[in-house]
Write a structure and sequence with these properties.
Layout lengths: L4 E2 L10 H9 L7 H6 L7 H7 L5 H19 L25 E2 H10 L17 E4 L11 H8 L7 H8 L3 H13 L3 E4 L36 H13 L2
Antiparallel strand pairs: 1-2, 3-4
InterPro entries: PatA-like_N
Pfam families: DUF4388
Organism: Tumidithrix elongata BACA0141
Amino acid sequence: MHQGRVVATADRLDSLGLSTMLEQRGWLKNLSPAKEYTSCSLDMPLGIHLKSQGILQTEHLKILFNSQVVKQVCTVFHLTDGQFRFDPTIQTPKAEMTGLSLPATEATLMGLRGLRNWTSLNEKLPAPDSSIFATISGKPQLRLDPQEWQIWEFANGTLTLRSIAAKLQLPIEKVQQIAFRLIVVGLAEEDPGCLSATNANEPEQSLPEPIEETPEVNETAGREVVSNSFIKNLLGFLQNKV
């Protein structure tokens, strides 16, 4: 994590995770990753160094970053228990970095989108007869997919998720999962006291127009700063939601 952006993930401590991925894909053209990188005196990520040498292209870096970071974030949500610790004194391992980065909130959102088995999170989902309301004013800065935009437009606390599902002709489980994603990244909160969707006084709403935006990663650190509180709030939500 650097300035609120995820720059790399690894499940080993020898700093050879990215090099191993490169070797497995045959992208190093018989070069030794350790020798090739240590021969460079510049303080830069391995991916950027190899790109500057013409060994990798931007598309290679995107593929590596998606496999190394985005898919790994998805697996975290399959865990039923765990712990984490921030250590600001540890130097970021350049040998594990592609040079790309993604805001922590967006990485979380993308990881949840890729989740296929929601069994471990079923008890954390907002109730079908609850509603959600926006926690920010204006449009989100995060890149939402079309269905997320539709649910977001209904985040005003007046319709239950069950009613939203009926209006959008989506399975209630799908709407619960999307609402959960919006809650986890801090765009919405659940209101368990919402009136029933069958209440005669419930106002009618027209279907919102979805806005499609293509997610992308940046080769720069960016200016967004996400403190440790984002991770703590995320874990707190997962622990306390009944």
